[in-house]
Amino acid sequence: MKKILKWIGIVVLCLIVIVVAAALILAGKYNKLADKTYTANPPELPVPTDSASIARGAIIAASICSGCHGGDFSGTPFFDEPKIAQVPAPNITKGGRTASYTTKDWIRTIRYGVKPDSHGLFIMPSKDMGKMSDADLMSLIAYMQTVPSNDKTWPDPTFTFMSKVMAGAGLFGALYHAEEIDLTDYSPRTAPEMSTSPEYGAYVVGFHGCKSCHGDQLNGFKSPDPVSPPGANITPGGNLGKWDLAAFTNTLRSGTTPEGVEMDPKFMPWTAIGLMSDMEIEAVYNYLKSLPALPDDETVVKYKEKQK
Known about the structure:
The protein is mainly alpha-helical. It folds into two domains: 1-188, no CATH class; 198-307, Cytochrome Bc1 Complex, Chain D, domain 2 (Orthogonal Bundle). It is 45% helix and 6% strand. It contains twelve helices and five strands. Strands 1-2-3 form a three-stranded antiparallel beta sheet. The longest helix is centred in the first third of the chain and has 34 residues, at 2-35. The radius of gyration is 22 Å and the shape is globular.
């Protein structure tokens, strides 16, 4: 009996050692990724100064950037789960993170997810924003350079040991988009003609990152974010199939669906997305309505079953 207990103790101890070693390796993997530097040397594009371009940049900034950085772009708490991590979105006005940014720094940051110091940007959706046309990108940069300076400061991000282990294991998905972007692709980006066409709607959906939450087929997806619900099916196979343009527009601007569901802005940033122009919203609607009517993704089905 003593021999059996002895061997059980040895096995348990070995398992504990293996688990601890694996955790240290995974946490180290995340730390290594956080310290990694990247090379991105895109060409410097001209910054427009005309009022139409700056107005276009204001719409893009409001509908994308404000969702994380706040309406005045001075930053927000963004992700605040002390048991996992506390990650503020920084102040990106001239009084904050971008104070010394050159035009090339802006391009490198937005399109390639790389900071001026060559480190990757944490949870910066550059893989999606990089799909913006050169004209839209430079309009956004032109507008951001006109935003009033704000001196609000935020603490550095903090992570628990377990969150680093989870990040190292890939459970949070791609935290540094620079890992997935071709940092040598400096080819010009263009966009379809601005209109309410499905083609233009597909372009808007692309650089707004809708597929990051709703899936590649837009029929639902569970993002790696451990606290978020799955993104809904937004093909005609979901509730969208029953909505007209007015209902779709009202959903994005009020945060409440025709079915009476109130969308949580922490997970569906309707307060920002709803600031798209009427033309963009109609284009997105026309694009989504042109898609095949797909059934809910399995992750959405399982989530709905749990909510019953």
